[in-house]
Amino acid sequence: MLTLGSRLLLHPWGPKTPATRCGTLLGWSLVSSFSAGVGSRVSAPSGELPVIRIPQKTRLRAEQKLKRAAGSKVPALRLARPGRLLIMGKRPELNQHAAYTFGKFDPIPLVTKGWKHRKATGDYFVINNTRSQPPACPGEEQREKLRSFSSLGLCGELGAALDGMGISQPNGLQVRTMTALQRGRNVLCAAETGSGKTLSYLLPILQSLAQETAVGETAESNGLRSLVLVPSRELAEQLQRVARTLAADLKLNVWAVGGGRGMGKLKLSLSRGPIDLLVSTPGALWKALRRDLVTLGDLSHLVLDEADTLFDESFVDLLEAILQHCQIAGHPSESRGPGRKAQLVVTGATFPGGVGELLSNFTDLGSITTIKSKELHRIMPHVKQKFLKVKRTDKASDLLQMLKELVVQKTGVLVFCNSASTVNWLGYVLDDHGIKHSRLQGSMQAGRRSGIFSTFQQGLVDILLCTDIASRGLDTQRVAFVINYDFPMTLCDYIHRAGRVGRVGSKVLGTVVSFVTHPWEVELVQKIETAARQKVVLPGLESEIEQPAKKSVAEQFKQN
């Protein structure tokens, strides 16, 4: 029986007639709404008791009774309304509406809970996109509040080059980064992939180089004025093209060098007189330093792009050796005038834990201004992401079926594998089925790798089979689909792969499809699903440069 006293309650026991069952559901839904706080939005994930819409007369009587008991400040009841699904899967009872968020200590129903069992084959779930544009791209209602490139002090030549590239206004991340660099600060720029980090450091560097050239400041014959370190030759070539396009009317010497091309070509590239801006991989630059082909004494800017890769085990020793040849400014005043030191820029979408420990050996970490995006390390809200539980033996046939449907759309597709051998094997399979594609992996000879990604960017080939060499920094605006044939080894790798779609300037937001087979892959996907349902950052990823722990006297003695 429904009783309205000091609080609304329906006794759940009694005869189980249809009327009392209906009343019980109604009563408990009202009690739950009041216990959560009157006026809160009532919603629940699928699989629990459904929200019952309260008849209007009953709602009015309840509100009047509560107002008399607690005063007139009690707000009116608001009922949950159906909306777009955030999580959608094969089992509707595990769907989650976009307006609902699980709390930190709430039990979370996961689609992937039983995916380690072989019977889960064929299950799937989708994280729908809840935004219509990349978060870093300002909306129409925000454009008037943002500054223009001219207001940031860029010269007319750079402004004209940006107009030719179809870029008319900076986003918020670029404004903050450029302003800090123009003030002489060392900068850590941490933002999601595709947010425009490259322009945020290239523009102020080129502007500074042009001003110095105008007053007659140049480097020595084999000296560099600015250096950008990147992890791959493809990224170095791409940055060279962007920098040369921007500096076309500034009379600046811009070059790029990468590994795998022999000392002869390296000497030829570095023997064309003073270089204003060099884009290089760590291996190629270290070879040049050891043979005295270049010096870093006149360096005014040092950029570490895609820092998470540069600081991992494959590059960190080379990077430390290169930094020992540089003098990094510890204060804005040290980056100007005679005897200046290099201004440091560190950029990336994810950061490893050892960044602070290494950089603390070369500069004061307190001199670094950290600029972060609000969406850093989160599931990208503007990209649709689908996860499929498949058998290992079915992956190739499932991929073929997808690609045959996508080929008709004439759009860019990246297929990621974890090894070069898998890329080559899949290539043979696609050849057998007459599907045109290209392959890009690190074990290829330099001559074969050169120009492959450029061909894909130009639209001459629509499907690119690749390893993670294509997941860092490369401009993939034409890519509409990313397929993880092999699920990435880490969440960091997943962020970078997924970041190949939905980039600033892309015509389509894009979709990411991931095949999930092994138990360790299921564990990673469970972390992604949990973060999506709770709307929090992915676990285990850092975005701050932390002060390293002080070493004991014994540890310092061992090092010396």
CATH architecture classification name of the largest domain: 3-Layer(aba) Sandwich
Radius of gyration, in angstroms, nearest whole number: 28 Å
Query: How many runs of DSSP E, i.e. beta strands?
Result: 18
How much of the residues is beta strand, in percent? 5-15%
Low-confidence stretches: 1-43, 74-81, 136-144, 551-560
Shape estimate:
globular
Q: Strand count, sense and closure of the main sheet?
A: 9 strands, mixed
Strand order in space, largest sheet: 4-3-5-13-18-17-14-16-15
CATH topology of the largest domain: Rossmann fold
Tally of distinct domains: 3
Number of helices: 18
CA-to-CA gap between the ends? 82 Å
Characterize the structure shown.
By secondary structure, the chain is of the alpha/beta class. The chain has 3 domains: 6-70, no CATH class; 85-134 and 378-534, P-loop containing nucleotide triphosphate hydrolases (Rossmann fold, 3-Layer(aba) Sandwich); 147-372, Rossmann fold (3-Layer(aba) Sandwich), CATH 3.40.50.300. 33% of the residues lie in helices and 15% in strands. It contains 18 helices and 18 strands. It has helices at residues 18-35, 56-70, 156-164, 172-182, 197-214, 233-246, 262-270, 282-290, 307-310, 316-323, 355-359, 395-407, 420-432, 446-449, 452-457, 491-498, 519-534, 553-559, and strands spanning 2-4, 8-10, 85-89, 96-97, 124-127, 186-190, 224-229, 254-257, 275-280, 301-304, 343-348, 368-372, 384-389, 412-416, 438-440, 463-466, 479-484, 511-516. A 9-stranded mixed β-sheet has the order 4-3-5-13-18-17-14-16-15, with helices on both faces. It has a 7-stranded parallel β-sheet with strand order 8-9-7-10-11-6-12, sandwiched between helices. The chain has a two-stranded antiparallel ribbon with strand order 1-2. Strand 8, helix 7 and strand 9 form a beta-alpha-beta unit. Helix 4 packs parallel to helix 5 and helix 8 crosses helix 10 (316-323). The longest helix has 18 residues, at 18-35. It starts with a strand and ends with a helix. Mean pLDDT is 81; it is low at 1-43, 74-81, 136-144 and 551-560.
